[in-house]
Amino acid sequence: MKNINKGVWFGAAAYLLWGLLPIYWKVLSHVSAIEILANRIVWSLILLLALLSIRGKWQWLRDTFANRTTVVKLAIASVLLSLNWLIYIWAINSGYLVEASLGYFINPLVNVTMGVFFLGERVRNLQWIAIGLAAIGVLYMTFVYGQPPWIALTLALSFGTYGLMKKQSALNSLEGLSFEMFFLFLPALAYIIYREGSNVGAFSTSISSSSWLAVAFLVLSGVITVIPLLLFAAGARSIPLSTMGILQYIAPTLQFIMGVFLYNESFTHTRLIGFIFIWAALILYTIEGAVERRRIGRLGLAPA
């Protein structure tokens, strides 16, 4: 019980930090999203390599490069993750945090759908209803606004596909992220060098204007990337997946609240109706999952 309670705190802390991350990126709103992304990749890899050096275990890297299929899947995962990060950072600093939060609200349902089509997983009737409700919400917003909520859909689909690639990898979260950052490191570093060499980079412009806070936030972008991941990994080892599934809604809920009440983004009644369909889908999905796991526990069956 003590380990479970500790795991809940670790998991909640991870999602809390992810939920508050928009405040961090807002400080860097004067920096382009691509440059923020490049710095996040470079400084994350530096920190990850330091952590891996402390552990002193590098056999996994040799084994990974020896498996061409694994390399290809992790390479695809790294591109998807960088796309997800780029769109998310851009959305936050362009005034679309509410729509970005929608992407992470519908992500669990996207994961279920991908499990059906790509992994042959079975979906129960109430889960299909939940997916249908979410689809109605998205279609409603598409009809009302004349275009789909592309930011939300891109975030959900990129992260869902990223998860699909990761699900087929044997690496743990620390090793997996290290490989992904390793794959993206050279392009990211080259972009930073190019920008700095042109005297338009974030570091040169920030230093010339004595904006040391921006410099510090760029350097620490690796820390705020890795720490939630480590907390999540620690929590996931100690608590049931169902509990972690509920905790995951902390992040988009905080993002939604900040978008509406802190950054005063538009949230009309028509958009509210679309969100209500999404939230109803998530409530149904969460309750159905809890009931099914309790039923399986009583019968002593293996999860379907």
What topology does this entry show?
Blueprint: H1 2-27, H2 33-55, H3 59-66, H4 68-93, H5 97-119, H6 125-145, H7 150-167, H8 173-197, H9 202-208, H10 212-219, H11 221-236, H12 241-247, H13 250-262, H14 269-299
Properties at a glance:
globular; mainly alpha; 304 residues
The assembly state of the depicted protein chains is single chain
Beta-strand fraction estimate: under 5%
**How many domains would you count in the coordinates?**
1
- Total number of β-strand segments? 0
Spell out the helices and strands N to C: HHHHHHHHHHHHHH
Number of helices: 14
State the major sheet: none
Main structural class = mainly alpha
Based on CA atoms alone, the radius of gyration comes out at: 20 Å
> Which overall shape is indicated by the principal axes computed on the Cα atoms?
globular
Distance between the termini: 26 Å
> What number is the mean pLDDT?
89
Low-confidence stretches: none
How much helix is in the residues? over 70%
